[in-house]
Write a structure and sequence with these properties.
297 residues, alpha/beta, Rossmann fold, 2 domains, ten-stranded mixed beta sheet
Amino acid sequence: MKKLNILVPIDFSDLSLLALDAAAVIHSMLGAKITPFHAYIPVADIDGLYYMGMGIGSQVNFSEIEPTIKDRLRQVAEEKLPKKAITPPIVSVGNAPQAITDEAKNYDMIIMSTHGRTGFSRFILGSVSEKVLRISHTPVLIVERESVLEPMTKILLTTDFSENSFAAFSWARTFAKATDAKIDFVHIIKYDEFKSMGTAQTFAALRKDRMNALIEEYFSDIKENVRPEVVLTSESPHEAIFNLHFSRNYNLIVMATIGRTGLKYLTLGSTTANVVRTVGAPVLSVNPLKDNPEEIK
């Protein structure tokens, strides 16, 4: 199996370090090389120098900032990961979401926490993690304090039958094969969009047939671990996903960032962004605008 190359952006807050815990789990499941990463804006972010344990002042030597940050990145990574899994830390100067996205072009996955130094960024449209979700073409795994990745036994995979949503299938399959996890393969239908419940149920049955065909196409070697399910609901998709997770407690939710509209990920109402904000489970988001890498073999 090819080892993943994973970029882990952290801001040295306790909450951001959750991403290193998740990276350790992924390393144990799939094998991975982990690169700790930090981006900062000189002066704006240097105030307080929380990662150096000192405040800004006339005695600060700015030429020592980057080596000091790299040393700190290495130190926190070694507290969470085996040394053999860690690659040299990277420090970038600039806007964090763009710096993360640019650097991640050479990686298979980004792992980061929703929360940052403020502790409340999950509720803010402009949070770093949400911006990365929207612009990164590298799959992004978002973790929370309550995230439980292992033992991985239950995966939720969503589809809206768009080509975009199919891009997430290989990731769900890779994790399921590595862990023998069960996949709930889910399509959500709002029944109030139909003239009658009978019409909605007929449509749902047709969708279920289509899901069975997709299982044969994409999951033939593990199809006994994949259960198709059409959810008829009056709720929004992210509310339906929240309720599924509440009742089943998934270890991982895998979904595409963009759906049938192709540009929906740019809106505040993006299903993936709302799931990340509200659900609490680890969410792996795949943006398929760029060609999706071949499945890890």
